[in-house]
Amino acid sequence: MRLFNQIRQLYKAVCFIESNLQEEITVAQMADEAGYSLFHFCRQFSRITGFSPFHYLIKRRIHQSVYQLLNTDHNISRIAFEFCFNSPETYSRAFRRILGVLPQQFRNYHKEVPKNLLMPALTKQDLNFRNQTGFSLPEIVELGQLRLCGLMGKLSDKKLLLAELKPDDTIFEIREYGSRSEEWFVFIGSENCGRENQLYIQKKLKPARWIKAGCKENEQQLMENFIHHTWLPSIGEKVNPWLYMLKTDHNSEIILQFISLQ
């Protein structure tokens, strides 16, 4: 009950931050919103969310500013001041630290908002998920070569592929981005298909380093948000955003997510 109350109080501060991304606010105001002393608030906010209050504010301002960067013709200076940075240079440094490139480079490279790269606002579900009893951090693993057999098609046809494959107890789902077609494809199969079918293809994955994380099916997005926007920045690793794998055991509620490291 105590943890539940802490999450509820700290979420008030999260909502306050989200409502004021384009307004000048202080950490003391966040603490007041949560009903904590400044010292206690900073300590508890970091423990529950994985971010210091100021870091969360800056990171959300940068990620939210991307929408202005890509959907308007506002210059960098205007966007910087709209999100409360005291100069274009301060904004550009923070942008590069968080997203890896300068704002103008990002604008030139992307034609639309790359939602998978942007950190959404924390929700109560996020906070409850990462603070639940028995929550396990992801780990980096070395996987040997995988030889799989199954079906491949557009990600939008995933349900049709599953119905055709009628998979065994354990299946692999591998999503890859086709740079030529600029769309996502999915391979669904297993190590032993056990049936002859002219539609089946062979899929090989070379030995590589992956992030491995276990979660329930309805927690996939919560885990992905945690990995990409909280855990990965904390360990200084980068991922290949175009290759992703799920391993599902139909005899278990837990699925394994594998995200390819660069």
Give a brief outline of the structure.
The protein is α+β, with helices and mostly antiparallel strands. The chain contains ten helices and eight strands. It has helices at 2-18, 27-34, 38-49, 53-71, 76-82, 88-99, 103-109, 124-130, 158-165, 220-235, and strands at residues 139-143, 146-154, 170-178, 183-190, 201-205, 208-216, 239-249, 254-261.
Would you give an account of this structure?
- The chain has helices spanning 2-18, 27-34, 38-49, 53-71, 76-82, 88-99, 103-109, 124-130, 158-165, 220-235; strands at 139-143, 146-154, 170-178, 183-190, 201-205, 208-216, 239-249, 254-261.
- The chain is of the alpha+beta class.
- It folds into two domains: 2-128, Arc Repressor Mutant, subunit A (Orthogonal Bundle); 139-261, Multidrug-efflux Transporter 1 Regulator Bmrr, Chain A.
- It has an eight-stranded antiparallel sheet.
- A hairpin with a 4-residue loop joins strand 7 and strand 8.
- Helix 2 packs across helix 3 (38-49) and helix 8 (124-130) crosses helix 10 (220-235).
